[in-house]
Amino acid sequence: MERELYLTKSNYVAGIRCPKELWLKWHQRLPYAESTPGSIQDIGINIGIKAHNLFPGGVLIDEEPWEHEQAIARTKALIEDDETPAIFEAAFEHDGVRIRVDVLERDADRWHVHEVKSSSGVKEYHVPDIAVQVHVLMGCGIYVASAGIMHINKDYVRGDAGIDWHGFFARTELSGDIQEAFDDVPDTIARHFAVLNEPNAPDIEPTSRCKGCDYWDHCTKDKPEHWVEQFPRISDKKRKGFGALGVEDIRDVPEDFDLTANQDRMRHVVVSGETYVSPDLWKALQELGPPAAYLDFETMSPAIPLYTGSRPRQKFATQWSLHRLDENGTLTHEEFLATGDVDPGRAFAESLIGALSGSDEPIIVYSSFERTTINELIAQFPDLKEDLFKIVDRLKDLLKVVSSYVYHPAFKGSFSIKYVGPALAPNVDYGNLNGVADGQAASAAFERIASGALEEDESVAGLRAELLKYCELDTLAMVEIHRALMEFVEGN
Fold first, then answer.
1. Host H or E run for residue 335
2. What's the angle, vertex CA 472, arms to CA 466 and CA 474, rounded to 5?
3. Cα–chain-centroid distance for residue 116?
4. Are 377 and 383 in contact (CB under 8 A)?
5. Is residue 492 very low, low, confident or very high in pLDDT (cuts 50, 70, 90)?
6. How many C-beta neighbours within 10 Å does residue 16 have?
7. Strand ranges inside 69-143, DSSP E
8. Statement: residue 7 has pLDDT above 60
9. What is the pLDDT of residue 2?
10. Per-residue pLDDT at 175 exceeds 90
11. Bridge partners of 112?
12. Quick check: helix, strand or coil at residue 82?
């Protein structure tokens, strides 16, 4: 039996963003998966639960999404009970739209709508989110006195006594800002249902701007290995030009097509299959040693402050890995990983100074991230600034060298170390990492250690081992990339 069509508030917003995403969310639903710890979804769920602290006596509608009728009935009963001050996840349906209101706060016979977000302010898509909720509520006979976004107060500072949730959250009233979006809700609902009633998904071509969408893999599965969307800084004008020519593969782009110098270099490499190495690479390598040190940092930015005196999403340097290559080719390794029970900044900075003082070899990094992080440590610990400035003065960015002087067909438009490392040094394999395999996962893992919020099958020792292995691989990758670059020069 075919399901009766309906919209949710998330699908309503998705349809405004991309009608194809709306169609796929209904007709080709992805398998259910628990939110990944540290992901935007996971953080949002946690922040939503914490918002309940602001409404003592509030009642949670905890029926599952598929128990919608029961949830509506329970919501109605609580609305009729004057003793209920607030309802969390209140369930309603009108015009074929099903919603769960994050917080519905009673004010006599009126109600205040609070949509809880993990952002530090109002974003563009929050407006239609609120507008469709108000539309449904009014359609159900609810007197909406106000509607707004509860979000993180970016200026909040955690005190000695823990989190003051009233200070942690800020509220932005949107009642006066949603009128245009509110007026458009009926027509938008009609357009969305027209899309859902189509037998096939709308014919919308993906672009690199679609990255991050749950259906990215689905929409790009038939694209060629060297898709034109891999071109850096591709403009809509060029996209239209490729479309007019029926070109999707970089190898099919005509030589006289108007490309930037970097794009044309990329096209030539992909067509020829030969790595581009600038004749000026040797000049760029002159200041990189060896001897050389190779440095990588990991950080965390918890949405809910963990340490007294810290702010939401304040960045904390938590871990470093340091490889050293001497003039004889001998490779050594040092590392630091904070415990997490206290603000790790000073221990991080002092251990870094201890590892790098007394030498003057260039310190190779693979982005501007380390420079920015050290400058933040200087601001935080002015008594350490002299030693930290000395480290900053020695930093050399290997990413700038690679992106300026080398291009390999396997880069596929990216200069990320996850692409460059395996392409230039096949012994660098990020695929062998289990658990922590990227920066976001590393940040989330350390936050779980620091907060004590471990998953059921996790241990502190296991997470620390994963973190150390991941960070060490990043600096080892830099060593191997540097060696590969030197071999290019020596081979010419």
1. strand 331-337
2. 110
3. 19
4. no
5. low
6. 20
7. 86-94, 97-107, 110-116
8. yes
9. 63
10. no
11. 105, 146
12. coil
Neighbours of 392 (CB within 10 A): 16
Question: What are the CA-CA distances from residue 363 to residues 165, 232, 312, 396, 403 (Å)?
Answer: 43, 28, 31, 6, 18
Long-range CB pairs of 276-281 (<8 Å, 24+ gap) are: 276/406, 276/407, 276/408, 277/405, 277/406, 277/488, 277/492, 278/404, 278/405, 278/406, 279/492, 280/405, 281/401, 281/405, 281/406, 281/485, 281/488, 281/489
Residue type at 379 in one-letter notation: A
- For residues 420-436, give the mean pLDDT: 90
Query: Over the stretch 450-474, which tens digit does the pLDDT of each residue have?
Result: 999 888 889 999 999 999 999 999 9
In the chain the first and final C-alpha atoms are separated, in Å, by: 69
Nearest-angstrom CA–CA distance, 82 and 127: 30
Burial 344-369 (b: 16+ CB within 10 A, else e): bbeebbebbbebbeeeebbbbbbbeb
Single-letter amino acid code for the residue at 176 = G
Strand pairing report for 86-94 and 97-107: antiparallel
Structure-token pair, residue 61: 């509608």
Q: Determine the average pLDDT of the residues in 247-259.
A: 96
Distance of CA 216 to the CA centre of its chain: 15
- Indicate if the pLDDT at residue 37 is higher than 80: no
- Say if CB 477 and CB 438 are below 8 A apart: no
Give the whole-angstrom CA distance, residue 423 versus residue 412.
10
Structure tokens at 11: 């699908």
pLDDT of residue 38: 75
CA dihedral in degrees (335, 339, 342, 348; nearest 10)? 0
Burial of 139 (0-12, 13-18, 19+ CB in 10 A): middle
